[in-house]
Amino acid sequence: MVRILNVAEKNDAAKTLAGLMSGGRSRKREGFSKFNKIYEFDYNLFNQNCTMSMTSVSGHLLGCEFEASHRKWHSCNPVSLFDAPIHKTCPENYKDIKRTLEREARGCEILVVWTDCDREGENIGFEVIQVCTAVKPNMRVYRARFSEMTPGAVTRAIANLQPPDKNVSDAVDVRQELDLRIGASFTRFQTMRLQKVFPNVLADQLISYGSCQFPTLGFVVERYKQVQAFIPEPFWKIKVSHDLQDDGFIEFSWRRGRLFDYEACLVLYEHVIENPLATVLEVKKKPKSKWRPVALDTVELEKLASRKLRINAKETMKIAEKLYTQGFISYPRTETNIFPKDLNLRNLIQQQVNDQDWGEFAGHILEDGPNPRNGNKTDQAHPPIHPTKYTNGLQGNEKRVYEFVVRHFLACCSKDAQGQETTVDISINDEYFSASGLMIIARNYLDVYPYDKWTGKILPTMEEGAQFTPRTIEMNQGETSAPSLLTEADLISLMDKHGIGTDATHAEHIETIKARLYVGLTNDQKFIPGELGMGLVEGYDAMGFHMSKPHLRAELENDLKLICEGKKNRDVVLADQIRKYKEVFVEACTQAEKIDTALAEHFGAPQQLSNQDLLQATAMAITVKPCSKCGMQMSLRTKKDNKGFFIGCSGYPTCREVIWLPDYVLKAEVTEEVCPHCQPGPVNRIRFQFKRGSVPPFIPNDYTGCIGGCDNNLMETLQIRRSSQSAAQPSQPTSSQRPAASQRPAPSQRPALSQAPPSRRPFYACSKSQDDSSKCNFFLWADNQEPTTQRSNDSGFSTLKYYNNPGGNRTSAITGAGDGSVSCQCGQEGKLLTVQKVGPNQGRQFYACPKPRGQGCNFFQWGDDAAAPTNYTAPRGGGYNASQRGGYQPGLIGGRGGGHAQSNGSTTTAQRAPRKCGQCRQTGHTKKNCPMNR
DNA sequence: GCAAGGTC
């Protein structure tokens, strides 16, 4: 027997459909999800007996999200979210449903999709198809389209199975992707920036952007601005009243309404009172009805509950969903306001006849036969909201909402209220006035629907042709009044009208803008923009981007419709929209100060931050390099105290990889230059400014370099360990691993660099653990190798030779260009001089710039530097004394005779360095008698 | 910590 898997959008629908198709004889069994049962029954399809399994999902089975590399807020520049890869995955709480589908699909040959017949339903259908065909690729797939869940509609649907509509599903994919990309990018940008700019007010505030929430905010702001900008305008009108002693009082209004010209009105008024005799021209009587309410859809439920019950939309929907799951009312998310023909209204009304408040009214409806007043909307899936079961056991707002649904339903099924309207037209000296009255003949639906008021007004009896002198003829002044702020019902109407959100989400968007403090409520429950909401809208408006206007969403909706109809390609629409929004985003970032300025009107002066800080805050700074541990991007950041920099992994705190830059880095800025050598890339070069005198002479104080590993001198200057070292190089040799001096190769035996990859080269480091705060940065190559190669110029010192060894620790190689000379930083040949002054260095030779003092560079090099001391305890930081910032000391490196290097981490005090010269940083003399003062 | 859309 052929097995067919049927999948509906929710368990409730599966149950109903199975009931209808099986004639109430389906068997229920459990799936992996306790909420989504499996209903089985036999059915004759395609002229053969089939076993049907009907199960369900719970709305969307798959969710749209970024890859891990873009999921964290600081993991990337938000602009990259416009292009970052997006995946559809099954969230954890739906895994059980997916497992059920997979298991059932394996045993079935045919899949019939019974999801709701709207756009989202089609897309959910394709999610089901994706999951099922993944385990059963050769499954035949059909779509059942039904206008309502009634026996006739379901029978027609299964007799006319169709292919699923990819176009419609594509439109939803486009919508999902755009919502995610645009929402996430703008939200991150706004939040991260404004939290920094207004830390006192917004430090913990999420400042979201969404394609529905922003236009919703826009409606509130728009109305508020209308109210603010409103200027009352005076007008004048003539009012006539008459008192017919025993027969009552009557008031006539002027047919001209009101005039905004005082003198014009005055002229007419004077004309009227010149001859104030009134003549009754006509007395008209005509029937007047007050229409009963239309069948209830979600939007009306939300609006009416808000207006009549004073329960806000969010709360109403929450209650309605609870009543639905308890079986008291039908599905509350519906756009349909037409009762299906084959829905048995009589039965539903019958259930209510015993209620003490409205039971009698329900009985009367049954006598006359239910006659529902339908609207003109249908979502082709759910009927209007109506009671499905009687209860009198509810309390509080649940009771009020249930009662409203019942009364609305009964009112809708009964009759319009009937009355008679009387109009009396009079003239006074050629000006015309009229009065109207109402007599209610049959209240009908009003008896069960206290939410509508219709009050009669009895006019005194007047005869045509009769004449009388009115008791008063007045010229009154009035003035126009501002529109009122929006009520929740007004707001929902506007959202509905402009296609912002769906019936199921209006209430959520309103709640969102309340929760984000974009709007608030006045005492009489009217919406008023908050400072944040107002500032954001004004900020974007100032840029010329009307982000809060509904047309953006409307344009997208139009495109989505064209995708559904196959008139536009999904990829074209997607690319077009992404491009458009990305351009806006980039421009918004450029002009972000306009948002600051707008908000400053409300929050006071913004925090003064540098561009670098702001870029950093918004994760928009260019990243430095991929993390060697986890592969996520590392970016340049400022330390907490704003003194100094570090390069941190965006995977923090999961990944704690960090490169601390020394204190003598005064400024650092990532450039857009990408290093052509370093891998994995991209590795962006960093523009540094070093403290004067703190770095070796071959590194200028302003220097742009790569920290990816290709620039050995920079790596050493910054004391950066290579990323590969962590994997390939012993981070800290134990004493047993340390080579004894005797074991170390003699210089002549030492391998050339090409034979000894840097990553394999042993070095000494402080033996304290990484977590020990007193651990120092000591670093020393174990072989203390002499220079063997000359490096090509990439930093402007073509005539200088220096180590190509990573971490190479000596500058004693600055021996000139091979001709016995020494060149200084400015390219001049260094001048060999001798220390003349009395002191420890008296008689010692050194090279200096030959230019006159004040014009030359700061180059200084001992002439005998190659003969560096070998028994000197290396100061912290290797070749130059980093811990005593500002001191570059040529030739202070060497291992101790015993082959052990020792960091000074614990011996600083004992080895406290003698006072250094403020000019050359050498010991043994002061700046005053420095040999450089030649 | 982001959106909007389903749904429980």
From TrEMBL:
UniProt cofactor(s): Mg(2+)
- Pfam families linked to this entry: Topoisom_bac (PF01131), Toprim (PF01751), Zn_ribbon_GRF (PF06839), Zn_ribbon_Top1 (PF01396)
GRF-type domain: residues covered: 824-866
| UniProt xrefs under SUPFAM superfamilies | Prokaryotic type I DNA topoisomerase, Zinc beta-ribbon
Going by the record, the broad EC class of this enzyme is isomerase
How this chain assembles, per its entry, is:
Binds ssDNA. Interacts (via N-terminal region) with BLM; the interaction is direct. Directly interacts with RMI1. Component of the RMI complex, containing at least TOP3A, RMI1 and RMI2. The RMI complex interacts with BLM.
Q: What is this protein called?
A: DNA topoisomerase
Species the sequence originates in? Capitella teleta (Polychaete worm)
Q: Taxonomic lineage of this organism? A: Eukaryota, Metazoa, Spiralia, Lophotrochozoa, Annelida
